[in-house]
Task: inverse folding
């Protein structure tokens, strides 16, 4: 069985970091059934957003470093090779996620971004919330029991 290829949007990394749910990300990154992909653009965006004052009041520098280490050591870091063009995407800053999805032929993008969620799909990639993905994975797991 081929591993499920996923991309986790920056807003989700930040939200789980603030909610002290980083262990859930660690579990996803270390799953035998899932491959989590990142790119330099995603890591840079995470570093930039996590350094904002409105985020810093909720998370320590050490937790941010721990998250970056998780991204760098437990995720598959890929250079974007296919630049996506999508005219109906409201925020062009999200294009790198779609480009990464095209590059790796991702199964899912996990996000909380309403603009991305509205798309539902980008080529072969399904765009879902974290909770929707977990529900889908539990349904798949129960099919194999």
Result:
């Amino acid at each position: 069985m081929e591993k499920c290829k996923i991309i986790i949007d920056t807003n989700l990394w930040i939200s789980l970091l603030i909610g002290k749910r980083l262990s859930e990300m660690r579990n996803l990154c270390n799953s035998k059934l899932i491959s989590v992909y990142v790119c330099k653009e995603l890591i840079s965006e995470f570093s930039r957003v996590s350094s904002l004052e409105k985020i810093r009041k909720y998370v320590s520098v050490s937790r941010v470093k721990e998250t970056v280490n998780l991204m760098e050591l437990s995720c598959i870091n890929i250079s974007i090779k296919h630049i996506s063009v999508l005219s109906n995407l409201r925020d062009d800053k999200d294009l790198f996620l779609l480009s990464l999805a095209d590059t790796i032929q991702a199964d899912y993008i996990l996000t909380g971004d309403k603009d991305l969620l509205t798309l539902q799909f980008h080529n072969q990639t399904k765009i879902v919330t974290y909770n929707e993905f977990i529900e889908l994975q539990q349904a798949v797991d129960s099919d194999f029991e």
Observations:
- The chain is about 50% helix and 15% strand.
- The domain at 4-143 is CATH 3.40.50.1010 (Rossmann fold).
